[in-house]
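Case study.
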Amino acid sequence: MTARTLFDKVWDFHTVLAEGDGPSVLYIDLHLVHEVTSPQAFEGLRLSGRTVRRPDLTVATMDHNVPTVDQLAPIKDPISAAQVEALRRNCADFGIACYGVGHRWQGVVHVIGPELGLTLPGTTIVCGDSHTATHGAFGALAFGIGTTDVEHVLATQTLRATRPRSMEVRIDGELPVGVTAKDVALGVVRTIGTAGAQGHVVEYTGSVVQAMSMEQRMTLCNLTIESGGRAGMVAPDGTTIEYLAGRPFAPRGAAWEAALAAWSELRTDPGAAYDREVLIDAAELAPSVTWGTTPSQSVAITDKVPDPDSFNDPSQRESAVRALEYMGLTPGTPMEEVVVDTVFIGSCTNGRIEDLRSAAAVMDGRRVASGVRVLVVPGSQQVKVQAQEEGLDGIFRAAGAEWRDAGCSMCLGMNPDILQPGQRCASTSNRNFEGRQGRGGRTHLLSPAMAAAAAVEGRITDVRRLRARVS
Amino acid sequence: MKPFRCEHGTLVPLDRSDVDTDQIIPKQFLKRIERTGYGPFLFHEWRYDQSGAEREGFVLNTPVYRTGTVLVAGRNFGCGSSREHAVWALQDHGFRAVIAPSFADIFHGNALSCGLLPVTLAEQEVRALLDLAAEDPRVECVVDLEDGTVSAGELHCHFRLDATQRRLLLDGIDDITLTLHTLGEISAFEAARPGWMPAVSRVEEPA
Ligand code: SF4
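After joint prediction, the assembly is written out as follows.
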């Protein structure tokens, strides 16, 4: 048999029907649903008199719109309220489990799938959300789809999709001190560009990836879409199995044994060829921060705002000019001199317990700089409960940060958590597009530790310097 | 779905690369539960200022381009979120085709499934179309899916689309209808699916 990549194995297994080079019919093992991209899909089913083929493979939550304070009170914005209500009704009508507001499993869709043990190696997972790539950390083939495809999956439990190409991003070597998974992810996007992985499924390999915890792998896979990749994957290993054992939906008993046997095959065979390979030397990665309006526009924290003329490619140069104008930044300004008024710690990129621990470690015993608003938003209710059990909420509160309920919050500001025009935010989320966190708002992407450092210093700060000062 | 065969219309030049879906339709307009009515919010932040007045200089606010049906833009068009609302907003505004050197994958798929034709041309061809549309706004552009060509003024370009996708668009058939013909294969696949795979029914819902 020919040598195959991890992606090939998962794709081939799920191919129900292949017709030449055209789209294949691909079986979907798990369909995650949220309130924003699903109402029109359910409406489509009703209009055509169709039903949900596999409600048992479909799970819904409410995350994008929900307020993160007083979450149980009625939503004030009538349009948000209608969207949340539509999901509740659609789930009831079609027999779909909904872990919505008030449920102890509610949370950002890409946080709850893994923590509930729904996300399993070797499966196919889709969601009407581009950051579905997050689930690839488990060796699942997971990707975002649009609403028409949501309807397609609801109706048929399959998708028609053209086979993407495969790409290996190998990160070898030793990470310098202070470099987190977020910095690795930003480094990858910077190296390959906003469209560098277009049409590809990326498999992350190498010693750095192997050494990562599951939460770190999720952060890495989460940003795959920011370089245009269809999905990101990491081959499952002991770390994966240890994370999944005993989770609510993880298989048990004989099924668990069968799963372990199947998962042990889930790795790229020796000699299997990727369509593209990119090598990244860990030693060259640094704690990073974005200066522009795409996630690829980042530099090391010790660097300066770049001069657009330093880009050879005319379209990159032009996009840098526009980005600096929007961001209100002057070339040559050291990143550490950029003053922020808002800090957002949360999202499906960095809203998990390890992220909160890392931010709390920096904020412990310190105060938020005056005039800075800091929102700490756990990725799920379960993360929230755990953080409270560990006393992290107390550390954040004592420092002067706001401790919130779970949701997407200021990652995209569909709920009341938004930036005002001209406000500048250090954010652990994944997108710094114009207006993403609120019209006219300016976003700098960075890791939870660096976001916490920015919170206490009131400006973008090299967390390593902050730590050094204490010891 | 409305079939797409041939479109005659005005070219609208949007000379930017990495046009992301947050720009095409900002999130505050994603709360509707309908598929229509998004046109007025297309490119909202570029089109209107804080007071809601039209910004002079943005291409859609220029009278000759207002009723254009073929958008031409830079590379990596539609990057960012999976929101199909971006496609709906372009269609609701009146666009029937978008021409660019490259598209983000999810946007490309969404466009096809809604009948908005994504046309991928070489970087130089797109540059020529952008320049032509800027210099001569009245030039007519013809996008012909049947023979895979784009023509405007002196320019004639060829584009390719996967044969199945092309057939579906030409006939206006949606994917679901097509897939429902393979229910037998889907059921057979399900019957052989390993027992350890995810299933929500496995767990009693907690209180
Ligand atoms: S946290 Fe942000 S990126 Fe993640 S699902 Fe929510 S809005 Fe999307």
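Observations recorded in class. Chain B has a mean pLDDT of 92. The helical segments of chain B are 21-24, 44-47, 85-93, 105-114, 123-135, 163-171, 175-179, 183-191. We will return to this complex in the next lecture.
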